[in-house]
Amino acid sequence: MKKIISLVMVIAMIAALAFTVSADDTATAPTDGLLAHFTFDDAESGLTGNGAKATTATVTRGDTVSIEDASGVPYDAAALVLAEGGDPTITDDAVVGAGAYQFDGTQCLKVTKEDGSGLLDGVNSLTISYWAKHDNTTQWPFFATPNASDGGPKSQTYPKETYIGLLENSKLSAELYNSPVNNNARTYSVGATLFTFFPDDWHHVTVVIDTDNADTTKRVITLYIDGEEDGISSPIEIEQHTVSEILGTDYSVFLGYAPWGYNDNPAHEGEWATCTLDDMYIYGRALSADEVAALEAASAREDKTPETDAPADDNTEKAPDDNTEKAPSDDKTTDKAPAGTTAGTETAAPADEGGCGSTLGAAAAVVALTAVFGCAIVKKH
After folding, report:
1. What CA–CA distance (Å, rounded) separates 11 from 5?
2. pLDDT in tens, 120-164
3. φ, ψ for residue 365 (rounded to 5)?
4. Which of 36, 44, 259, 358 is in the most buried spot, having the most CB atoms within 10 Å?
5. What integer pLDDT is reported at residue 348 of this predicted model?
6. Structural domain boundaries enclosing 237
7. Are 190 and 233 in contact (CB under 8 A)?
8. Would residue 321 count as lying in a domain?
9. pLDDT given at position 217
10. Helix or strand or coil: residue 38?
11. How many distinct structural domains can be found in the chain?
């Protein structure tokens, strides 16, 4: 009989342990080197985070000006005029949290530190992570460019580009160009050519740009799409250029806009995004594969399924109010109504809400029943 009692107690301990480990700890994103975290949950707190801010802005095209590249060769480019201001466009169509940012094709977000200084000052490597959804047309979730002499963003002209950008359409490309320094040769770039985005479907992107190393054979850009490593740049045979070397000390960082000049179209002021972004992280260093995995877990898709009332509640509300009055006075069921209920009425059992509370309650019930059963066996024998 002692063996039976021991077996019962072991079963109770295993059941309680099983319920306990079902509760997952909240995943946290890496904090070392975190420059910005935008939740986009609302127009105030959602556009600030970790010492950075995102300000709505519009850009218009000014006069065409002649500038020189690093070799002293002049070329024409458009002067772009940046104007901050405008109403943020927050949508509740979010994958994480309460809101996401919907770019409408007419304005963008300019990102700086909270004091207005450059977000990427002194930065050599980058990690950018976000959720995105669009119709597979050209989108620029992230674009950093040196400013022109007039203070506006430098108008990019092929093949003299100088910028760091993330381009999305039916695929993802991470681009780093420092062309004037390399005799107009387009510097290194990488694209995830094997992955096709589904139109209007959320996907998660993490881009690691590792240029802070002396080994030119080390891979420079790594792309992660929905948690899977999807594209790796080839080893760089030319001199590498860090983020700071490409941008300099006077630059602009945009979300949802790329300042392409297109000299053959004087009315063109750049390319605007119409995508939706959510839960964006920007780091001033290259995250490791393990850190990327932790970041992916912290920014995991949330269950947005609307909660519905349990059917039991609807049945209780529809019960006629006069049933109690019509019950016979000598009905023995009335005298035997359970404690805590009104005679002649039924109380619906509360619906199980799930989560840790129901799990711990179930565990407690198993332990209690097992203990009672065990005591009963002891008393009988």
Report:
1. 10
2. 999 999 999 999 999 999 999 999 998 876 667 777 777 778 899
3. -65, -40
4. 259
5. 40
6. 34-298
7. yes
8. no
9. 61
10. strand
11. 1
Residue 367 maps to a domain: no
Q: What is the CATH number of the domain that holds 66?
A: 2.60.120.200
Task: Please provide residue 100's backbone torsions phi and psi, each rounded to the nearest 5 degrees.
Answer: -140, 165
Segment-wise mean pLDDT, segments of 10 residues, the chain, 381 residues: 45 39 61 97 94 91 62 63 85 96 93 96 95 93 86 74 89 81 57 67 92 68 86 62 88 92 58 95 95 94 70 50 46 40 38 41 43 41 46
Assigned domain for 74 exists? yes
Quote the CA–CA distance of 153 and 107 in Å, as a whole number.
15
**Distances in whole angstroms, Cα of residue 274 to Cα of each of 101, 108, 249:** 10, 10, 29
> Which is nearest to 30 in space by CA: 266, 291, 289?
291
pLDDT of residue 131: 97
DSSP 378: H
Task: Round to the nearest angstrom and report the end-to-end CA distance of the chain.
Answer: 8
Residue at 353 is within a domain: no
Of 44, 37, 40, the residue nearest 92 (C-alpha): 40
What is d(CA 200, CA 203) in angstroms, rounded to the nearest whole number?
A: 9
In the block, residue with structure tokens 């003299």 = 160
Which residues are CB-neighbours of 53 under 8 A, at least 6 positions away? 47, 111, 112, 113, 114
